[in-house]
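TICKET #2291
ISSUE: user wants both folds in one file
ATTACHMENT 1:
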Amino acid sequence: MGSSRAGAPADGAGTAELVRTARTTGLCYLGMVITAVLGLLVIRPRLFAADDPSATLAHLVGNGSLARAGVVLEMLMVLAQAFTAMWFYRLFRTVDAFAAAGIAVFGLISAVLGLSSAALLATAAEAAVDPVGDASTTVHLLYLSIGNLWGVGAMFFGLWLIPMGYCVLRSGWMPRPLGWLLIGGGAGYLLGAFIGYLAPEAGAVVEILAVPAHVGEFWMVGYLLVRGVRRWALQQAPRDDARMAPTAST
């Protein structure tokens, strides 16, 4: 009898469980993406004016409910990120335990960064209505702190994609181009984090470097939700450890 690919379940029940795990992972990932887009790309630009502390203060004072919604969305993003990291570990732990642990660890670190961002946003909203000292200066400093938190945190956004891409390649459960795109996108995120501080005027380069990561993440979410894993790949190739095991004599 032929052996299955590394980490693959040996029977139909195991395959169904793996598909359920993949789709649960995709659902958590989708929740993370939705809350991140709403909180970071929709709400935050409506609250903070990069070069105008007075305008930022006015936005926070006049849109208190929006600021609170932003805090809640970032908290939900943190929860989704943490669950996504845990479920990716469950999905890939039989493929490569070390790489799967890397996804989980780097994902949880990113979740902590998100938690810090939510706390700073909540502090800015409170300082706007109940200031200590100059309110506009305080909220602008908090805004800069949030921006730099995400700026340095881009290292971990990249680091969690690299082992994810490796697990895709090693397992064969998803398309190989997806695996390479995740690895390349992770490397781009990592490089962009350093370029952003070494060459602040190269913002366009940093954005371009992040494009493969964005494409790879959306592709991964869609594949996990729609396909789960490639069922035919589960039985296609022998396990590495099976190939290396000594053959029993008869």
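ATTACHMENT 2:
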Amino acid sequence: MRQLLNSDMEFLVESDFIYLPLLLDPAIENEVQNLLRPGKPVENPGHPESKTIITHKDRQFVKALSIHSILENYEVINAYDYKNRRKEFLTKYQLTREVDDILLDDTLKTIIFQVMPYFVRKNRGLQRKKLQDEDILDLIAEKIDIPEKYYKEAQTFRHVEHLKTVLTGLENKKQTFKPPGNGLLATHQLRDWFHEAIHAKILAKEHDRLTKALQIRLQFSQAKPEHAATLLYIADTGSMEIDGFGFARKNAYKGAYFVYKRIGEYVLKDYYARSYLFPACRVAVSTYTPFRPFVMEKYKHPFLLRHKSGQDICMKHFAPSSEFTAENAIRVLEEGLTALRYGYNARRRNGYHSLDRTWVHIPTIDFEDYRM
């Protein structure tokens, strides 16, 4: 697309499609004449109003690109250019920091406000009181040393007047997508129109995001400054750990996280009742499929096929969930932790490997270095 817009050819626009000029070649000319002869259909069944070949001022043009499709998918077609144009737009309106994403991220809210309270206790007493959202944010602030800069930013975060002003400015400049008129267009004309259309698309998309952000900020305008500071800290770092429970943002997928629970050292016994001390590790589940428990560190265990990181835990009757919910995440973590600590049966030697060496000549993982 970039090469097309930087060329010096003329385009024909007809019915929201871009037509490219056909080369003056005898073979192409014969093929065109065959297509245009009486009784030969040249219309696109999917778009009966747009023809495959159009003759305009004694020149033939062939249908090439859908204008609507290019605009809708430009973020994928040319991610680099779209990212730069979006950055320019956000910089212009001083919106480069997406501090509201954490409040719009349902997955992260599920982790913090529903999964974490199950594994982290505010009080050491026997009674487990259900924590409210404010209690959870207080707990995070108590457990984690949040840098001072987030408390300063929280003051701005809670003031919504600036955001209202920005939204009003965007509303006044809001554009609607209007395809270019039918007819011949020079490259620079199509390029200028295309850049304006991309700008309008970005503006509309950011306007919707900021409208949602304003609604959420209005809800938090009366909240404690330390709560806003806590949320800003989590949004920036994308990770947190309290009392062995934590989560970390996955770089490969936007809005996806690893949710984990640490397990301390534990002892397993082999067929001969000899003890093996296994090191601590983190059992995790991804918020992006598959929803199976795995060990984050490089680790070996009878229920792990190899000695490496990121391995799924082998559980014979485990049925993975089809969606990420708080209940499913808790169940997956609990079953993974239980499998490592209590799932190995020394008599049956279940799993991929046996703790004690057997006479079966199959390559296996050795656990002699864990012997106590």
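RESOLUTION: both attachments delivered.
EXTRA DETAIL ON ATTACHMENT 2: Residues 161 and 214 are 10 Å apart (CA to CA).
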